[in-house]
Amino acid sequence: MHEITDYIGRFAPSPTGQLHFGSLVTALGSYLQARAHHGRWLLRIDDIDPLREPPGTAFQIIRTLEHYGLFWDEEILYQSQRHDAYREILHTLWKEGVCYHCHCSRHRLHDLGGVYDNHCRHREPLTNNVTPFDKESAWRLIQQHPVYHFEDVIQGTYYSKSTSIVLEDMIIHRKGNLFAYNLVTVIDDNYQGVTEVVRGADLLDPTLRQISLHKQLNLPIPRYAHLPLVINHDGNKLSKQNHAHALPDTDPRPVIIDALRFLNQPIIAGWQDYSLTSLLEIAIAQWSPSEILKQNHQQQRYE
User: Fold this and answer.
1) 240 labelled as ligand-binding?
2) Model-level pTM?
3) Rounded to whole angstroms, how far apart are CA atoms 300 and 93?
4) For the segment 140-183, what is each residue's pLDDT rounded down to a tens digit?
5) Residue 6 CB coordination number (10 Å)
6) Is 169 annotated as a binding residue?
7) pLDDT at 301
8) Of 14, 16, 129, 185, whose Cβ has the fewest other Cβ atoms within 10 Å?
């Protein structure tokens, strides 16, 4: 495989629940891609929504990754410890006059069909005299760098499904004084020097916004590689919201084999005779992202 110099990948789970099989597929795909390129693989805990994060979940995620042999490089980065950096960038955007408070309710957005009409852009002057951090309103960034498509390492060219969404002023700071996912992801991917983001295909649309933010902040844009989603027996994405079962703490090897099978990677004959470390080393040597989409993943159901 062609080696990418100074490759840095990452796995960035939100601690809103324990890791499940879909999480493992994402973590494993990201890990194998980094290791196959002789790069670094980082772990970031995206803990920006404390009301949705059960105590101890971050610790459980870390222990589960260790149990499955997915060890990271460098110290774990916790987004909850990065608030000063986020505020500094938000203040800069505010001073530049490129963002504004949005007071629209969820009910109004629902009535609009879920796509914001930039209603609040002209409701208040873009001035430093207005206190920026207001718990009763969100911040929106004036869209100046719309992105309609991008090249994905796995999915190929991905096009936005809606021009209206592309042109929408996105939220960069949420009501209740919470930082928006898209903004902090871009900030921290740049901070950590991430060169390629490997994650689930449910984040294809947010990637368009994140590339736009990279351009707004004049930051280098990483490559993106989106893995197919694991679905449950009801045809829905396997997720914490759908009460997916936590990964078992028994022998990790058969679960790793299942994840490799889902990613359409060569299955190691006689894998029972290998240690977990050896199994992962073989998986790294055989890793082939180009094979991932060569089977119908919609037929693979779990749970």
Assistant:
1) yes
2) 0.92
3) 44
4) 999 999 999 999 999 999 999 899 999 999 999 999 999 999 99
5) 10
6) no
7) 46
8) 129
Place of tokens 């894998």: 271
Ligand-binding annotation for 12, yes or no, is yes
Note every long-range contact of 229-235, with CB atoms under 8 Å and residues 24 or more positions apart, other chains counting. Answer: 229/22, 229/200, 229/201, 229/202, 229/297, 230/21, 230/22, 230/25, 230/262, 230/297, 230/300, 230/302, 231/297, 231/298, 231/300, 231/301, 231/302, 232/301, 232/302, 232/303, 233/301, 233/302, 233/303, 235/301
Within 8 A by CB and 6+ apart from 254, the residues are none
- Per-residue pLDDT, averaged over 258-281, amounts to 96
CA atoms within 13 A on the CB side of 163: 0
Contact criterion met (CB below 8 Å) for 224 and 9: no
Q: Does the annotation list 10 as a binding residue?
A: yes
Do the annotations mark residue 191 as ligand-binding? no
Mean pLDDT of 125-134: 58
Total count of residues recorded for the chain: 303
Pull the structure tokens for residue 50: 């404390």
pLDDT in tens, 19-52: 999 999 999 999 999 999 999 999 999 999 999 9
